[in-house]
Design the sequence.
C-alpha cells in the first residue's frame, strides 16, 4: 500500500505533467489514470450535462461510463491528436449511443444563466442583461427543443469555447460542415426564440 507521502508527491508531479505524459504513465500503472480523471472530471461533466440536459445523477453515471471507455482505449490514443479533443470525442460518441438506446427527449436543466449569456449577445447594457436573465428559462426550453447535433455545436463553440479545429476532431466533420452546423444552430435557436416571443438573442 502506498504511503500518503508518496501519493502526495506523485500528485504534485502529475499536476505538472502533460496529457500525453499522463497517458503514458497510465499505461505503465493504471493507478495513474486517476490523475487524468481528476483533470477531466469537471470539464467532461459540464460538457455532458450541457448537451444532454440530464439530471446530475444521470450525468455522473454517463461520465463514469465515459472514463471507463477512455481507460480501455488508451492504447488507441494517437498523440498527434489533442488529448482533450480525443476524450471529448469519446464522450460525444457515448452520449449519441445513450440517446439512441433511450430514445428519450432530454430534460432542459443543463444550463445556468451565466452559460446562457455565452450563447446570447456578448455586448449588452444592463437593461438587456436583465431581460436576458428573465428569459433564461425560455431559452433553455428552446435549446432543449433543438436537435442534438445543433445543440451540441452551440455548446462546443460558445459555452466550451472550442476552436473549429477542436470541434472538427471531436465531431469528425470537416470545417465547412462544422461551420454550417453552427450557423444553422444559431438560426434555429433564433427562430425558436422569436416564435416564443423572446427578444434577447
Sequence:
Amino acid at each position: 500500500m502506498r504511503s500518503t507521502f508518496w501519493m502526495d508527491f506523485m500528485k504534485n508531479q502529475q499536476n505538472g505533467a502533460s496529457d500525453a505524459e499522463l497517458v503514458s504513465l497510465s499505461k505503465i500503472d493504471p493507478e495513474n489514470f486517476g490523475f487524468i480523471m481528476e483533470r477531466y472530471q469537471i470539464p467532461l461533466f459540464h460538457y455532458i450535462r450541457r448537451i444532454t440536459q440530464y439530471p446530475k445523477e444521470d450525468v455522473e453515471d454517463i461520465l463514469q461510463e465515459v472514463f471507463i471507455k477512455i481507460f480501455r482505449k488508451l492504447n488507441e490514443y494517437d498523440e498527434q491528436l489533442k488529448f482533450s479533443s480525443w476524450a471529448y470525442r469519446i464522450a460525444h460518441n457515448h452520449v449519441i449511443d445513450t440517446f439512441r438506446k433511450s430514445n428519450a427527449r432530454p430534460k432542459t436543466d443543463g444550463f445556468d444563466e451565466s452559460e446562457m449569456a455565452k450563447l446570447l449577445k456578448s455586448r449588452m447594457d444592463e437593461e438587456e442583461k436583465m431581460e436576458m436573465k428573465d428569459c433564461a428559462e425560455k431559452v433553455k426550453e428552446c435549446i432543449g427543443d433543438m436537435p442534438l447535433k445543433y445543440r451540441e455545436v452551440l455548446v462546443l463553440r460558445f459555452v466550451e469555447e472550442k476552436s473549429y479545429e477542436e470541434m472538427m476532431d471531436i465531431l469528425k466533420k470537416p470545417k465547412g460542415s462544422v461551420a454550417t452546423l453552427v450557423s444553422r444552430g444559431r438560426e434555429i435557436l433564433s427562430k425558436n426564440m422569436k416564435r416564443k416571443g423572446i427578444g434577447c438573442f
Remarks:
- Residues 1-9 have pLDDT under 50 and may be disordered.
- The chain has two domains: 7-102, 113-195.
- The chain has eleven helices and no strands.
- The first helix runs from residue 4 to 15.
